[in-house]
Specification:
The chain is an alpha/beta fold and about 475 residues long. It is about 30% helix and about 15% strand.
């Protein structure tokens, strides 16, 4: 069977420019003390990008950009980062270690070559990458950047987390030391905290089948709210000011919005008829069971057939737990493109669960995100912290776009400037934007005048 599959292509586009905004004021610390700044969080704080942790990504992370701006209002000393000694970096893909992704040329199963994310060093050995991520750097600390890729909110409180996560184990000051306990070595006067994304993102990137969403309530280390309070209590033992960021809707990032729900384009009526004949028995069974699901194809673009384990078929009919995806459901960027193009995934063969977010799974993600953000809002009010509303700005980027210092931001994969080649983490331009969101919130809360980053001085995704 041959038919043409419509799939996303990475298109090259020019950037339009405007004159950047010039901030004309004298820097002032206001009521805050920025002498010693510590940043805590997950991969976003660490400077993870393009599917890996690498040197320039860490240098261009929002925490480091913010630290530079804080120098004008009293921050002292080096802002220490546990650097990975590689520009290719190290990340994970399933159980494998990989380098970062860069834009390059890739040939698909149909023989078509196009521009797409490829590994910077596809021949990097597992041994070399393991050494890179496993080499301790704790002697270079204590570190001001406590961002740990993969960390959930409870992980910041977990003794022994370094033995489970090498991104932290490599810079932990002592075996068994919890991430939050690293704070004591620096006695920060000011802190930033952006944590909680992974508490829902892990569930989302697994298609709702490989991880669980962190509950709002429960003891510290388990529940979101109690964990947040415990983390803030540690910071506030020395810090008199801080900023806390909320969580954007993770389903609005390119990882979830790039692949269309209806990529199967049929141009031959005989192929349409063959597919419909193949699903006639399925449709008859669903009618017999009194269920509303039907699978049908027509000329033009068609929704993919997916596995949906929640379909209530009678025992013995589990193979019928399939249906066509709806327009409000999402396809993950990790779906194998060649399987759709050449192995009839989505037409003859249902798409497996782990590549799809159904409407019920999306609802769970949104409910958890709303609950986390309500908790963060109350914590900011109760602790007199600057609230960084990343959620509002990322929603604007996804819905209407945003132009900052002449740089246009959208959630379009690769071309949208804000998101790196992994479709989740930020580009240097995206990090500059986030650094400015922190600065806006800090200035407003503490009557400070911290100069902002010029976003146009940083790059988006680099093309060959």
């Amino acid at each position: 069977m041959k038919y043409r599959i419509f799939f996303f292509a990475v298109l090259l586009a020019g950037l339009w420019a405007c004159q950047p905004e010039i901030n004309e004021f004298e820097p002032s610390k206001g009521t805050a003390d920025f002498t010693t700044y510590v940043a805590a969080g997950n991969s976003l704080t660490a400077g993870f990008a393009d599917g890996a942790l690498y040197r320039s990504g860490q240098e261009n992370g929002y925490a480091n950009l913010l630290a530079k701006q804080l120098e004008s209002v009293g921050r002292k000393g080096e802002f220490k980062i546990p650097y990975i000694n590689s520009e290719d970096g190290v990340g994970t893909a399933g159980t494998m270690l990989v380098t970062k992704r860069v834009m390059g040329f890739s040939t698909d199963c149909l023989g078509n070559t196009s521009l797409a994310p490829v590994f910077a060093n596809p021949s990097a050995s597992q041994q070399d990458l393991a050494v890179l991520i496993g080499t301790p750097v704790s002697a270079e600390g204590p570190f001001n950047n406590l961002g740990v890729p993969g960390a959930k909110i409870g992980h910041l409180l977990a003794p022994g987390y370094g033995s489970l996560n090498p991104f932290y184990g490599r810079f932990a000051s002592a075996p068994g030391n919890a991430i939050i306990n690293e704070v004591a070595a620096l006695n920060p006067s000011f802190f930033t905290l952006w944590i909680g994304n992974n508490d829902v993102l892990g569930y989302a990137t697994s298609g709702g089948v490989g991880d669980v969403i962190t509950p709002v309530f429960g003891n510290p280390g388990f529940g979101f709210a109690a964990s947040l309070e415990a983390i803030l209590a540690t910071f506030e033992a020395t810090a008199t000011a801080g900023a806390i960021a909320n969580i954007p809707d993770v389903t609005s990032v390119p990882f979830f919005t790039t692949v269309p729900y209806n990529p199967i384009v049929l141009q031959d009526q005989s192929l349409v008829d063959q597919l419909n004949a193949g699903y006639a028995q399925y449709n008859g069974a669903m009618q017999q069971f009194g269920l509303p699901y039907r699978i049908s194809f027509a000329l033009g673009a068609n929704p993919m057939v997916i596995v949906d384990a929640s379909i209530p078929v009678p025992p013995g009919y589990e193979m019928l737990k399939i249906r066509q995806i709806t327009a409000d459901e999402l396809v993950l960027l990790t779906i194998p493109q060649d399987s759709i193009k050449c192995a009839y995934w989505g037409s003859q063969k249902p798409i497996p669960d782990q590549y799809i977010l159904t409407s019920s799974e999306i609802a769970k993600i949104k409910a958890a995100t709303d609950a986390y953000n309500y908790t963060i809002l109350n914590a900011a009010k109760n602790h007199n912290l600057a609230l960084v509303d990343v959620n509002r700005v990322m929603k604007q980027i996804a819905e209407t776009g945003l132009i900052v210092d002449g740089v246009p931001f959208t959630n379009v994969f690769v071309r949208g400037n804000g998101f790196s080649t992994d479709g989740i983490h930020l580009t240097p331009q995206g990090n500059a934007l986030v650094a400015n969101l922190f600065i806006d919130a800090i200035n407003a809360t503490y009557n400070a005048t911290i100069p902002k980053v010029n976003v146009s001085e940083y790059n988006g995704v680099l093309l060959p």
